[in-house]
Design brief:
The chain is mostly beta strands and 82 residues long. The chain has a single domain, classed as SH3 type barrels, CATH 2.30.30.100. It contains one helix and five strands, in the order H-E-E-E-E-E. It has a five-stranded antiparallel β-sheet, with no helix packed on it. The chain is globular, with a radius of gyration of 12 Å.
């Protein structure tokens, strides 16, 4: 067990209310505050931003991302340019 995380969804639970980075199929990348998720890893992000090469491409706001399009979810890096 690392940082109280024993199962994959524990990491998502620990990330609720925090900024995450989500990589989608097709090379799309989003950064936003993780508000909710379900067992299919469908996620809701608030203050979502579409990123391209580490820089802001578009502000999106509140958004839903479908789990079957997600490649990975990670705590967002503070080095991203906003």
């Amino acid at each position: 067990m690392v940082n109280g995380i024993e199962r994959p969804l524990d990491l998502l639970n620990a990330s609720k209310g925090k900024e995450v980075m989500i990589q989608l199929k097709g090379e799309k990348q989003f950064v936003g505050t993780l508000m909710a998720f379900d067992i299919h890893i469908n996620v809701v992000l608030d203050n979502a931003k579409e990123m391209e090469n580490g820089t802001l491409k578009k502000n999106i706001g509140l958004t839903f991302l479908r789990g079957d399009t997600i490649i990975f979810i990670s705590p967002a890096s503070t080095s991203l340019k906003r």
